[in-house]
Design brief:
Helix content is 16%, strand content 34%. It has 123 residues and is an alpha+beta fold.
């Protein structure tokens, strides 16, 4: 992701092969979330996201064209289907001064196993 020609985000999505059939990657330009939303299948249930900070290093630092280590905002997310299957596993790194994030939360009951998996805490 570029802002005024400079890279400000590095995004990686891992989508199970079963959800990639019929996808034309020559014209695709989006995220792992765009695939099921665009198709309407599978039905989506919830997204568990962990927020944190990380120093840029290695491949991420190179991709973001940073000479020195730089604090980045890291979002790790797992998108689950109605069948409680991971549909997208993503890791996104953002240069903080380039983004303003707002976390809107909604309280819904989710299965105890899903709570443990996304938070690491016992339900």
């Amino acid at each position: 992701m570029l802002v005024e020609g400079s890279p400000v985000a590095f995004l990686v999505d891992v989508v199970p092969a079963a959800h990639l059939s019929g996808c034309d990657f020559r014209s695709f330009c989006g995220s792992g979330l765009d695939l099921p939303v665009g198709r309407g299948d599978p039905g989506l249930a919830y997204l568990g996201t962990r927020l944190g900070a990380e120093l840029s290093a290695g491949e991420i630092r190179r991709r973001l064209k940073r000479r020195e280590p730089h604090a980045l905002l890291r979002l790790e997310a797992e998108l689950f289907s109605l069948e409680d299957e991971v549909v997208d596993d993503s890791a996104s790194h953002f240069v903080p001064e380039s983004f303003h994030f707002h976390n809107n939360r909604r309280v819904n009951a989710i299965p105890a196993a899903a709570w443990e998996r996304t938070t690491g805490l016992a339900g």
